[in-house]
Amino acid sequence: MLLRGSKALLTLLEREGVEVIFGYPGGSTIQIYDDLLDSKIHHVLVRHEQCAAHMADGFARATGRPGVCLATSGPGSTNLVTGVATAYADSSPMLVLTGQCALLTRESFFATMVLSWWQLSLSVWVSINLISVLLPISISPKHWKATTRRQ
């Protein structure tokens, strides 16, 4: 079964038990937001991306489950840094989803090489191309490092 990448991502998150995502929409994540309308996952719209990271951190601390936050590319993803750093320093489990431009050029509007600086500050990072993927896909909880606290 061929699905749009955003639908496959949400299906995967539902399978892993994600019930809430904190985020702020933007151009590179708009397909995810379109598919959230038909998802079982509850979205909490924040007023700033930094709030999404702090709310996901608070959710993780309160429930013991990974907090999930979502932001768009460029400044949207950089605004997550303080909340993610706080969660990392305090060993709160967190899954951070950001958009990324397909091709970065000098003409790219608000483009940032997100992976190049996130990989410096996180223990695990994965790049996923959300054009289309085939199901079944899964992330086993024992392999999803976001569910474990830093040792």
Describe this protein's structure.
The protein has 151 residues and is of the alpha/beta class. 36% of the residues lie in helices and 16% in strands. It has six helices and six strands, in the order βαβαβαβααβαβ. Strands 3-2-4-5 form a four-stranded parallel β-sheet, covered by helices on one side. A two-stranded antiparallel sheet has the order 1-6. Helix 2 links the parallel strand 2 and strand 3. Helix 1 packs across helix 2 and helix 3 runs parallel beside helix 5. The protein starts with a strand and ends in a 17-residue tail after the last strand. About 10% of the residues have low confidence.
Number of strands: 6
Could you give the order of strands across the largest sheet?
3-2-4-5
* SSE string, helices as H and strands as E: EHEHEHEHHEHE
DSSP helix count? 6
**β-sheet strand percentage:** 15-25%
| Structural class by helix and strand composition | alpha/beta
Using the CA coordinates, give the radius of gyration: 15 Å
Q: What average pLDDT do the residues reach?
A: 76
Low-confidence stretches: 124-138
List keywords for this structure.
151 residues, alpha/beta, two-stranded antiparallel ribbon, 6 helices, 6 strands
Summarize the structure.
The protein is of the alpha/beta class and 151 residues long. The protein is built from 6 helices and 6 strands; from the N terminus they run βαβαβαβααβαβ. Strand 2, helix 2 and strand 3 form a beta-alpha-beta unit.
